[in-house]
Amino acid sequence: MKYDVTVIGSGPGGYIAAVRCAQLGMKTAIIEKYNTLGGTCLNVGCIPSKALLDSSEHYHNATHTFKDHGIELSDLKVDFKQMIERKTQVVNQVTGGVDFLMKKNKIDVFHGLGSFIDKNNIKVTDGDGKETKIETDKTIIATGSKPASLPFIEIDKKRIITSTEALVLKEIPKHMIVIGGGVIGMELGSVYARLGAQVSVVEFMDDIIPSMDKTMGKELKKALKKLGFQFYLGHKVVEVKGTAKTVTIKAENKKGEIVDIKGDYCLVSIGRKPYTEGLGLENAGVKMDDRGRIEVDEHLKTSTDNIYAIGDVVKGAMLAHKAEEEGVFVAEVINGEKPHINYNLIPGVVYTWPEVAAVGQTEEQLKESGRAYKSGSFPYRALGRARASMDIDGLVKVLADKETDEILGVHMIGARTADMIAEAVVAMEFRASAEDIARMSHAHPTYTEAFKEACLAATDNRALNV
Ligand code: FAD
């Protein structure tokens, strides 16, 4: 079999790249080692985590806020098996959707491990050991990432688990210890805290979601504390031991004291590492960097001329929409076009409640770069919309250039900011000033008014509703 392009890996990077290649008239194949398409994101990442976040949020609201809304319920309980079952159905729907897209675009799907024989030939080995050879002109590597761990932690997948197992638990933990205060830990910790678990977070840094603007971590910590989270910040995990039913963690604080934390589950969520196992990169002359990522140039081309790489397996944010943008980009590069990605404008979202969303530079980054900036914030509690829904935790912070007023960064925490951040991305893509947004009509009452008000605050401190 001979193809113009072969994509290895069917996550959001890989399947989107395959669709765009097919749209551009290339004969395209995609190889996926798992039985279902969609990669981490659709099978064990973005989608199942959001399904459980939604279900647990309904339960939390039913137990905590319905009464205030004048809705009384009795005998409320969680059917956890059904909750997991619904999540599985959602996953089946979306992965089935990718099957449909492959058929619609006449992309040949090969299930099995893709491995380079040389730069133009790939071997696909399926679960029964059967081998199929594919000849290809160009290849796009989109093999994604896997959960990272620490050398002394043995992930037994029963009590000491990664996000993958946390999405298929058979019971609600009594006490879940989360190692790592990043996005995945805060999201999955929220799921179980809402369902009644005690959640303890052990984080080496002094803040949670440390890569985001510091204000966001501070505000999110307050909100999660209300949900019952306990934080051990500035604590370095030095030992993790599991038995059949318990897990014990030892963590060292800044004073050198050792704290013991006992739970029944330990979620290790310290980040993800690029996945290249079994790819046979050496047979194709594809180089990796010192962090195990595939090295690419500004066209996402690897060290071998006709081989490209995208998504989590290359440098940059490990996000589904970043992988998708790169998928389209690379297909168009192969087609001889000159596409563009503005990496500064890839938004980041944490789907806790309140949600956190951001785009552009953080205040810390601006300070470090020495750029003169001004800042404007607007609190959710001053919004009519937030009052109506009782979602008053949160704020929007806008950072703009001191002289030109161009928006340089937008950081939001509050209800529905995951969707609201798109307005900031558009504004920044068109290099809008804070004044531009401040003068645009935003429907009332909506949460989006907080962005407009924060822009008013950033330009001569003229927010109207505080
Ligand atoms: P992946 O989605 O990892 O797909 C790679 C695919 O390649 C896999 O299916 C793998 O089986 C296959 N593969 C690997 N090697 C081979 C081989 N040799 N042959 C054949 N197939 C192979 N991102 C967001 O933007 N928003 C979110 O809300 C979000 N939530 C997340 C929640 C969790 C719990 C996790 C774990 C991740 C989340 N992410 C989220 C991150 C997101 O899932 C990844 O950034 C995204 O999936 C990366 O896409 P990718 O195409 O690079 O790789």
TrEMBL record:
Organism lineage string: Bacteria, Pseudomonadati, Bacteroidota, Cytophagia, Cytophagales
Residues that coordinate or bind NAD(+): G180, G181, G182, V183, I184, G185, M186, E187, E203, G271
The Pyridine nucleotide-disulphide oxidoreductase dimerisation domain, residue ranges: 346-454
PANTHER family, sorted: DIHYDROLIPOYL DEHYDROGENASE, MITOCHONDRIAL (PTHR22912:SF151), DISULFIDE OXIDOREDUCTASE (PTHR22912)
GO molecular function, one term: dihydrolipoyl dehydrogenase (NADH) activity
Other comments on record: The active site is a redox-active disulfide bond.
GO annotation (BP), single: 2-oxoglutarate metabolic process
Protein name, UniProt field: Dihydrolipoyl dehydrogenase
Disulfide bonds: C41-C46
Keyword Protein transport: no
GO CC term (a single one): cytoplasm
Family of this protein: Belongs to the class-I pyridine nucleotide-disulfide oxidoreductase family.
NCBIfam families: lipoamide_DH
Residues annotated as catalytic: H444 (proton acceptor)
FAD/NAD(P)-binding domain mapped to chain residues: 3-327
InterPro entries xrefs: Class-I_Pyr_Nuc-Dis_Oxidored (IPR050151), FAD/NAD-bd_sf (IPR036188), FAD/NAD-binding_dom (IPR023753), FAD/NAD-linked_Rdtase_dimer_sf (IPR016156), Lipoamide_DH (IPR006258), Pyr_nuc-diS_OxRdtase (IPR001100), Pyr_nucl-diS_OxRdtase_dimer (IPR004099), Pyr_OxRdtase_I_AS (IPR012999)
